[in-house]
Amino acid sequence: MFEHWKSLEGVRKWHVWKLKLIDARLYFVSIFVGLLTGLIAVPYHYLLQFFFNARRTFFDSHPHWYWYIPLFFFLWGILIFVSWLVKKMPLITGGGIPQTRGVINGRITYRHPFIELVSKFVGGVLVMSAGLSLGREGPSVQIGSYVGSLISKWGRVLAGERKQLLAAGAGAGLAAAFAAPLASSLLVIESIERFDAPKTAITTLLAGVVASGVASWIFPMNPYHLIDAVDPLLSFWSQVKLFLLLAVVISLFGKFYSELTLYFKRVYSKVKHSVCMKMLYLLVVAYAISLVEVSLTGGGEQFLLGQATDGSTQIMWVLAMMMIHFVFTALSIASGLPGGNFIPTLVTGGLFGQIIALILVQKGFIAQENVSYIMLVCMSAFLVAVIRTPLTAIVLITEITGHFEVFYPSVVVGGLTYYFTELLQIKPFNVTLYDDMINTPDFQQQKRYTLSVEIMTGSYFDGKVVDELQLPEHCIIMNVHRDRKDLKPAGTRLIPGDQVQIEMDAQDIEKLYEPLVSMANIY
């Protein structure tokens, strides 16, 4: 008995040492995932910017009326074509963050990742080129997850490591979109995997730094750095009043924004008109806005930057622009075409902050030079209210603007906003989209699902015999993979590095994902 235990301890030490080598390989592969994601997501950003500039040049030049007609029909054809792509490949719909979370959880399998990647890339570029109010960040995240999926297949990565590369690719996608590697790592933890795993954090951060480096190389000038953030010189109690005011009004507006956007999405699906007619309605709105204020289309980021650097002082005009952008964004998201909601939400929050700041200027509470400061704080807080990712929102605004003076106010206002949104029962927007996705008939047909976890040193599973494990109801260990071999679970003592496949009811994935992963890992 003693000799058997001594032999087992020797095997265990060998596996722990081998596991460290495997981790080193995983970190190296995650760097490659970040590089490849950057080389795809950054051109995606470049093409979006190129076509936006081309569209703005066209409308600003005020050509003869007859030139508008062929362009209109060309863009209509583009939207119809992308709608067809989405019908053929439903996973490329929307931003892609809910789909990425579904893949990491195991709800979704990318059966044709390369074809879907190309379709997401092309569809996103075409839709944004038509002027719809969508963002680049969601598609960039999903493009990164496609890259992670492809690398995991080509590199024959173990099932337990696959989700690390998917998460690394997703984080690299956001880093490429904003050149913000730290915020990208936090987004994966807060919104996608929704679980604080050191391995995930490291792989995501490594991939994000590389992808961000590629983005900074292609886009050396960050327009957000041009925004001035002059801190208003207020007393302590005046700051307390200001922060409370911002948190309350942003939370209330966040509730309105979330409810109305989801209402538009659900009503849109019930409209009995053909896809061609729905695309026609969307394009008419996009065209009308382009004729008035072309910078408000394509997500509205250029309009926001213009207002933050040299904005209007007319409150009613800014309010009108914000509401037009808000309604157009809701319609664009409702269409289900490839494009994210992160940047449009950021724009709405910034414009809402501008309105609040201009009112405070009129009341003599702050000076005109402090408007951009309030806008940045509100951008962060509004992301907290709608997306419910406080760390990501706070760090993102600090990273992309380089203004650390807004960090502490964003922490205070963001924290208060998070509390108030809890009281208002605002459900995170991407979580709502995820729940809507998994409640479709296709997902309801799933009966059983297999989760792959990797055993780490010191975890609950480490050293346990499979037969002795206390697992949640209806959970069964189907296989143990060790040293490229499949072992029968019965009588097997688990050691670090084992890849364990646990089968469960499909309806329990979201409830049991975190508990089962935590049993296999030490976090």
TrEMBL record:
- Domain RCK C-terminal, which positions? 438-518
Q: What is its main location?
A: membrane
| Highest rank taxon of the organism | Bacteria
Query: Do you know which InterPro entries this protein is assigned to?
Result: Cl-channel_core, ClC, RCK_C, RCK_C_sf
For this protein, the record's PROSITE patterns field holds: RCK_C (PS51202)
Q: Where in the cell is it found?
A: Membrane
What SUPFAM superfamilies does the database record attribute to this sequence? Answer: Clc chloride channel, TrkA C-terminal domain-like
Single Gene Ontology BP annotation: potassium ion transport
Q: Which UniProt keywords apply?
A: Chloride, Ion transport, Membrane, Transmembrane, Transmembrane helix, Transport
Q: Where are the transmembrane segments?
A: 26-46, 66-86, 117-135, 165-189, 201-220, 240-258, 279-296, 316-335, 342-361, 373-397
- Record bears the keyword Lipid metabolism: no
What Gene3D superfamilies does the annotation carry? Clc chloride channel (1.10.3080.10), Regulator of K+ conductance, C-terminal domain (3.30.70.1450)
Q: Name one GO cellular component term.
A: plasma membrane
Q: Which CDD domains match?
A: EriC
> What GO molecular function terms would the record report?
monoatomic cation transmembrane transporter activity; voltage-gated chloride channel activity
Has UniProt tagged this entry with the keyword Membrane? Answer: yes
* Topological relation to the membrane, as annotated: Multi-pass membrane protein
Identify this protein by name.
ClC family H(+)/Cl(-) exchange transporter
Annotated source species: Jilunia laotingensis
